Structures are given as C-alpha cells and as structure tokens.
TrEMBL record:
Record family assignment: Belongs to the PlsY family.
The enzyme's E.C. designation: 2.3.1.275
Localization per Swiss-Prot or TrEMBL: Cell inner membrane
GO cellular component: plasma membrane
Superkingdom of origin organism: Bacteria
Primary site of residence: membrane
Listed name of the protein: Glycerol-3-phosphate acyltransferase
BP terms from Gene Ontology: phospholipid biosynthetic process
Pfam families: G3P_acyltransf
C-alpha cells in the first residue's frame, strides 16, 4: 500500500462520512439543534421523531450513501486495478464509519453508525446485507424498536459473511466486519439498557421536545 494514497483515501472517506446529515436537516427545517432533542443522537432515528418519517427515511438513505460511495469508488473506480484494493476499501469503510460517529464538525459527537455501516457493508458484503436487511425490517415491525433491529442485524452479519466468503482467504475483511458490528452494538449500549427497563422509545411514539439526556 502506498502511504500517500492511503492518506487520501482515509481523509476523503472520513470527510464524506462526517457530513452531519441529521443535524443539518433539523437546523435547516426547524432551526433546532437535534442534539438537544429526544435522545440527543445525531442520526436518522432521532431525526424521524423530530422531522417525521419521510425526512427520517431520507436522512437514513443519505447516511447510508455516505458509507457506500467512498468504498465503491475505491473498489470499482479509483483503485480498481491496484493489488491492494481491498485494503484501501477497508480503510475507506472504517474512515467513513468513524466520520459518521465522530464528525469533526460537531466536536466528534455524531450518530451510532447504523445507516453509514449499512452503506459500507452493502459495498463490501451485498449478499449478506440483502439477507440481514429483511431481518432488520421484521424485528422493527414486530417490536417497533429501531435500535433492536439494528442490534440484531449487526449481530447477524459476521455469520452471514460465510455465505460467499471463506477463511483464511478473507480474514482481513472478516476482522473488519466483526469489529464494525461489535462497535455498532456497543454504541447502542444505552438503548439496550432502556429496552430492558421498558423505557426505549418505540417507532411512532414522540418524545417531548426537551433538552437531551446524556447517552
């Protein structure tokens, strides 16, 4: 791997991932700092409570594109002929995910990585995502917990990896998938506590507009 190329890949993917979609939408539409609303999370779920389902879905899709595009550009356009293309793609995937969760524009306080992780994994593991996504939808439909659907889908991906990949041939990719999924689940630790306590917000419920509680 060329260090200069790697640096550009990481920087570009991080900046793409760090675009604070939910924050910009909430401020642009309602002049509200989304960090002071609901859960305080700068993500699609909290934006849905503030702006409605339509905007919530749009923000989710855009956040997914933030992860999808940098990885696809590396894999199929910019570095497709490079012998280290997969490593560059993994670096881009990690940087985009980190950018969403720790955006420099919001003092490194961003979302939980679900939507951007979806985009990243779609670029790297399209078949696994095609199976995990309906499971996510089913879990959310039954439980009405978006967070639970996200946790279940993230937990499934390392196992679904083996549908069309093997070890040790794809060990670097598998290591990334495991680390990314564990990280996303870890970021939902407060949601897990609220689900257990019966305090987690369900899809369709609205919280009062008040300063966010620590998460």
């Amino acid at each position: 791997m060329n260090s200069a190329t790697l640096a550009w890949v990481v920087l570009g993917a991080y900046l793409c991932g760090s675009i604070p979609t939910a924050y910009l939408a909430a401020y642009g539409l309602k002049r509200v700092d989304i960090r002071q609303f609901g859960s305080g999370n700068v993500g699609a779920s909290n934006a849905m409570r503030l702006l409605g389902k339509g905007w919530g879905v749009a923000i989710l899709l855009f956040d997914a594109v933030k992860g999808l595009v940098p990885v696809l550009l590396v894999l199929h356009v910019c570095l497709a002929a490079d012998a280290s293309v997969q490593r560059y793609a993994l670096a881009a995937a990690l940087a985009a995910l980190v950018g969403h969760v720790f955006p420099v524009w919001l003092k490194f306080r961003g979302g939980k990585g679900v939507a951007t992780g979806l985009g990243v994994m779609t670029a790297l593991l399209p078949l696994a995502v095609a199976i995990a996504l309906p499971v996510f939808i089913l879990v959310v439909a039954v439980s009405r917990y978006i967070s639970l659907g996200s946790i279940v889908a993230a937990a499934l991906l390392p196992g679904l990896f083996f549908i069309n990949h093997t070890l040790p041939a794809d060990c670097e990719l598998f290591a990334f998938v495991c680390i990314a999924c564990i990280f996303v689940i870890y970021k939902h630790k407060s949601n897990i506590r609220r689900i257990i306590a019966g305090e987690e917000n369900r899809l369709g419920e609205k919280r009062p507009e008040m300063p966010a509680k620590p998460v």
